[in-house]
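**Backbone geometry record:**
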Amino acid sequence: MRKYHIYIITNKNNTVLYTGVTSNLTKRIYQHKVKAYKSFSSRYNCNKLVYFEEHSNMRAAIAREKQIKAGSRRKKEQLINSINPEWNDLSDGWLFYFS
C-alpha cells in the first residue's frame, strides 16, 4: 500500500513555514536539506521537518495540503505544537540513502 505525506518544514529560526505533499517523505526531506531545487524552501533555508501526517491516497493528501495551506500561520503553529511542541527536526537521525 502506497503512503502519501503532508509535511511542514521551517528554517532554523522557525520564521518561515512551507507546506508540501509527497509520496516519498524521506527522499523529499533530503531534497530540501541539500537544496536540490531552486525553490521557495531553498531560498528561505527551510529544511527542518516539524510536522507530517500520513494518508493512504493522493487525493486525500492533496486536499489536506490545500486545507493546511489555506489556514493562518497560527493554525499551522497549533498543528505543529499538537505533535511537536519543541519544534524539533523530526527527521533527525533519518538515514538518507538513495540509489
